[in-house]
Design a protein that fits this description.
Blueprint: H1 16-21, E1 30-35, E2 38-43, H2 48-52, H3 62-73
Antiparallel strand pairs: 1-2
């Protein structure tokens, strides 16, 4: 497992194997998420719409979605 060292200018170098795995090249932007002592570094999506598309697929059964959509068109008097 590669080890990183923080430079005196607070910079790090991402190891070659990690850059290749994330398909990074110079000037790419990264997201840094820190939560409960865990730090995750990931490539910033070029399109958030494409990155999030389909993530909710399968969360609800088809019958629930049909029932919910029908409720949108019903008129209450």
């Amino acid at each position: 497992m590669p080890v990183l060292r923080l430079s005196s200018k607070n910079q790090i170098v991402i190891p070659k194997e990690a850059r290749e795995a994330m398909q990074l090249k110079g000037r790419d932007e990264l997201l840094v998420v820190v939560k409960e002592g865990l730090t995750v570094i990931m490539p910033k999506p070029r399109s958030y719409r494409k990155a999030l598309s389909g993530l909710g697929k399968g969360l609800y059964p088809e019958s629930y979605l049909k029932k919910e959509r029908r409720s949108w068109t019903k008129r209450t008097t």
